[in-house]
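Sequence only, no structure available. Ideas?
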Amino acid sequence: QVQLVESGGGLVQAGGSLRLSCVASGRTFGMSVMGWFRQAPGKEREFVAALSWSGGSLSYADSVKGRFTISRDNAKNTGYLQMNSLKSEDTAVYYCAVRRSGLLSRYADAYDYWGQGTQVTVSS
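Reply:
I predicted one. Tokens follow.
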């Protein structure tokens, strides 16, 4: 089992920045991919970004490309999502997720473990 705890969400004005963190604990040696997803009220959960835990493969949703940066610190078992130039449409609950094996995926069903989510609210 892998436990994930997100933090760093909050209220920010449009154009501002936030950095989300996701700390993994438990059987962390089994992690292959870390992903970030978000879910806005009344909408389905959508892919934001993903990063391979051991290498440099990464992927971004078109809506965040150039504004968000995903990274990880293996020594701390922590993943990050740096969010710049935030827009009101970025408002959502953000979740980190871990896939135990396999390649990067944009599909939520591919991930095995999920955090509880952290709220990001961008005011216009």
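The longest strand covers residues 18-26.
Hope that gets you unstuck.
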